[in-house]
Design goal:
The structure is a homodimer of 446-residue chains. By secondary structure, chain A is of the alpha/beta class. In chain A, strands 7-8-9-10-11 form a five-stranded parallel β-sheet. In chain A, strands 1-5-6 form a three-stranded parallel β-sheet. The N and C termini of chain A lie far apart (50 Å).
Chain lengths: 446, 446
């Protein structure tokens, strides 16, 4: 994936000079999501935002109640009040669901661009796959995409990288949607770490996936695989402290990366690109060393054939990763592949560095060659997703300093006391998977 | 875990000068395992090695047949004939199960010391946990340990690091066994990545595990956690190529490491040591960066308290890792903790570098300071396991060169045509989890 011809390097002397494009943020869907984009015939059956008896905001769809409208959307709260809720809009910063407030929040963080994953339908449209009436699911999936591209992203040209969901249960429909989205300027789609968790064929079933891959290759559309979209997060037991799960979940995308690396699809479609969303980068050099070792050591009995390449070559050609700050990953950037690294903010989730991303990033980027900084902070993302913010916003207006100058009015006082119930643990106890599971299930009680 | 006072560095100018102690090898149990060590009262019910109708060697115990006597014990075969069998002794190199031949095989690999994990009872004694009659399980577990320490390891003083299994279902009995083993000079025990996979309480249940940890701390006994001893290996589906599983399985120990790192036991027992067996090392700097990030970022709501330390400090104080060659891990050795790294050979499994370990290692160790090389190749293992090979073998007779000089008679001609059935795949197809599962299940048919 070559970058365009190098421009003369620009001066990057402080966090203010960075140009930041995040490939992993999240939108909490607003209540009027389906009003404009869903055909009238389906409107009565669209997901609806209602209030339950307790006053929580919940989505209602096909007899199901989906209470976690903004799972972990805690940006702006005091850290003691982070958690896995909220369960209503009033518990969230407006930037979670209102695009104008979102732009303010991006500006105050000095962030030029953002790719926003969905919330209530699941990060890769699990809800549509689980919907029995596939005609309805198809209509709602496309209407969601239309809202995402034509309302959310289009509200501020140059500020968003659009990202679509696919009707994954039908490869022909999915391929059609890849092409339809591309015509709308959307060159990213969100798929699962493990499609068998959606009762779909694995990524090794070429006859199922080939139409989708062909469409992605034809349209130059990248496939985003977000952590946590497979068979749950890695938790040895319900006693596992939530910290351990937060620590280990990004790394677990290595299972999907390994599965794809030894699948045929990457070698059969050498311009197909997978993006490991929120997976971190510092583990990748080890992973590539080990991939090459395993190939060299075992291929004679396993039957794998990479021709004159090694697995690490294929990874660097076709896989893209992203990081928050990841000091060791940045140190090892040339072992990963400087053209494969992108940055993410993860707004509005609790793991995010918002609104201090530029200063946090500077700790690991200060002193690096400017062309490497620009590659990792925005140029790679621009190439991978065919995203050109500078068509709308000149580079000198796109820096951290320039954007923050427009956000003087944004209130950053930590929000306190608006959260839902904290996970119920006693004095001196820690939050475990059990409490988080209970909290999420408890949202159903209202 | 400080090393003893530094000696003047010795000269290490070639692979011949290395002194190699492996903390992860495997023994395939010989048929006469229980003959000497099991009390007469239990002998009739001991696991018995029998031949099935097909002529495979299988263990029979309490009505169960255990066919995979030497899972993946393929050392010495031509690589095209690696696989997940063998299912009989005649398909294996004698060094797998005969201690005299094992010493020859260690010598020809220039390997001074070896810690050998068990095969048919599972790597941490899963079989004993699954045995209904706990009095029988206890007797057999202890008899196995006696064979391991007094017959296998004691046959060649200075050449083996003994490793015990525990009656894990009863913490009092387990603690007693830790102390009994220590009196026999054994300061290592094998536990599960995830005890809930053995229907035991998680590592967060202090009231269950405290007697075991107290015994380990009192006796200076290290707890070895081998990969694959939890809830299976990471495979997105049965279509997953076996290569992907081989690639991803070591890294999956990060889930256990995260679970332990945020458990109370490490902080409550600051001299308790866990060894991540076969987990590799190159991912650890990323893991520690992320552990500290997660702690800093989330502890205010999760309730974790590391006092004046960070999670990475606790990891370096109490966790030990090991590697085959792992170039990036060696490059980052000071970020991991030079005193926490040990080496492994993994004989006789297919991932092993035997009999070329010294030359493979030299690729990553050449040019490093000799004291760092010695720390990683043997001195750390000596400290962690209270193992002193030099009491029996002077250092000058313990080098790769000296040991190989004693092994001129060892035949290294690749073994061909003795394997069991290869996994059944067609021309141009690759070996997948499904074929491996069928091959393992097929061993039951005979």
């Amino acid at each position: 994936m070559p970058n365009p011809p190098a421009r003369p390097p620009r001066w990057i002397g402080s966090p203010d000079d960075l140009i930041l494009v995040s490939v992993d943020d999240h939108v909490v869907e607003p209540p009027d999501l389906f009003e404009q984009t869903l055909a009238a015939a389906w409107k009565a059956r669209a997901p609806k935002l209602i209030q339950n008896k307790r006053g929580d905001d919940v989505w209602s769809f096909e007899g199901r109640v989906l209470p976690n409208i903004g799972l972990n959307a805690v940006a702006g709260r005091a850290p003691e009040e982070y958690g896995t809720e909220p369960t209503s809009y009033r518990q969230m910063r407006k930037g979670c669901y209102d695009v104008h407030a979102r732009i303010d929040d991006m500006n105050v963080n000095g962030q030029l661009g953002s790719m926003c994953f969905s919330s209530f339908p699941g990060l890769c449209g699990r809800l549509w796959c689980q919907t029995e009436d596939k005609a309805l699911a198809h209509a709602v999936c496309l209407a969601y995409n239309d809202w995402h591209v034509d309302a959310w992203c289009a509200a501020y040209p140059g500020r968003f990288i659009p990202l679509g969901m696919l009707p994954l249960w039908d490869p022909k429909l999915a391929a059609d949607e890849v092409r339809r989205l591309a015509r709308k300027g959307c060159h990213a789609v969100s798929l699962s770490e493990n499609p068998t968790s959606l009762a779909l064929p694995s990524y090794h079933d070429d006859s199922f996936w080939d139409p989708v891959w062909r469409a992605c290759v034809d349209e130059g559309t990248a496939v985003c695989i977000h952590i946590g979209t497979g068979k749950g997060i890695p938790t040895p037991s319900m006693d596992t402290p939530i910290d351990a799960a937060i620590l280990a979940t990004p790394l677990a995308i290595a299972n999907c990366a390994a599965d794809l690396l030894f699948a045929r699809c990457l070698r059969r479609w050498p311009s197909l690109t997978f993006v490991l969303s929120e997976g971190g980068i510092g583990w990748i050099p080890y992973f590539l060393d080990r991939a090459d070792y395993v190939y060299e050591h075992h291929h004679a009995w396993t039957g794998q054939d990479f021709g004159d390449q090694r697995p690490s070559d294929v990874f660097r050609r076709q896989m893209v990763s992203c990081f928050f700050e990841d000091p060791v990953g940045i140190e090892l950037r040339h072992k990963i592949g400087i053209e494969t690294i992108t940055w993410e903010c993860d707004y509005p989730h609790s793991d995010s560095t918002w609104p201090h991303a530029p200063e946090r990033l500077w700790r690991v980027l200060e002193g690096l060659p400017p062309d490497e900084v620009d590659a990792m902070t925005h140029r790679n993302a621009m190439r991978v997703f065919q995203y050109d913010p500078f068509a709308a916003i000149p580079p000198e207006q796109a820096t951290v300093g320039a954007l923050r100058a427009r956000a003087k009015h944004v209130d950053l006082t930590p929000i306190r006391g608006v959260g839902g119930k904290p996970p119920g643990v006693g004095e001196g106890e820690v939050v475990r998977m059990l409490q988080v599971a209970k909290q999420l299930a408890g949202a159903l009680d209202g």
